[in-house]
Design goal:
- By secondary structure, the chain is mostly helical.
- It has a two-stranded antiparallel sheet.
- β1 and β2 form a beta hairpin.
- α1 packs antiparallel against α2 and α4 packs parallel to α7.
Length: 178
């Protein structure tokens, strides 16, 4: 059931391409995709049907959703140089982390940390933040949160001996704050 919801998010992300950016239909599909991101993991945990495949599918669905949303909205925004470089640095950090993870574990190593979840929530709020605060504040908020999560994921990937996609944070040991 959870994997079907995740697949629904992929379909929803692709369906966004059929909507006008920032239109009512865009926001409706966008909200459904965001809700599915919350529901799939919740349902998988509650029904005890979590799996490595489900974790990977969830990360792939998130990636597809973010890429499509960015592809739709980035051309509409007046980006300043600092935003482009900051986003580029975040993307580079994430790709380096994935590369190290693949070299170490021979697997896609997207992690489900609290910081990555916070980044997902912030990205889900992207259109609302943009409409409410404008591009500068929105970019600063999103890039700050995404930088912390990207660096944390890189530190975890470099320092871990085994792949644990569900590690919560470098600041937690056995779910207790260090």
């Amino acid at each position: 059931m959870a994997s079907l919801i995740t697949i629904g998010r992929i379909i929803g992300a692709v369906a966004l391409l059929l909507t006008a950016p920032l239109s009512i239909s865009f926001f409706l599909v966008y909200a459904l995709c965001c809700a599915s991101d919350i529901l799939d993991g919740y349902i998988a945990r509650k029904t005890r049907t979590t799996s490595k495949l489900g974790e990977i599918l969830d990360s792939i669905a998130d990636f597809i959703f973010v890429v499509i949303v960015l592809a739709m909205l980035v051309p509409l925004l007046a980006w300043e140089w600092w935003m482009v470089y900051w986003i580029g640095a975040i993307a580079l950090t994430r790709f380096v982390s994935l590369g190290i993870g693949f070299a170490k574990y021979h697997a896609i190593s997207f992690l489900h940390t609290y910081a990555n979840k916070a980044t997902g929530i912030a990205l889900a709020c992207f259109p609302v933040l943009f409409l409410a605060f404008g591009i500068n504040v929105m970019a600063f908020i999103l890039c700050s949160i995404a930088s912390i999560s990207a660096l944390e994921e890189l530190i975890i990937t470099i320092g871990s001996k085994t792949l644990n996609r569900n590690i919560k944070s470098i600041f937690l040991k056995d779910d207790t704050l260090i």
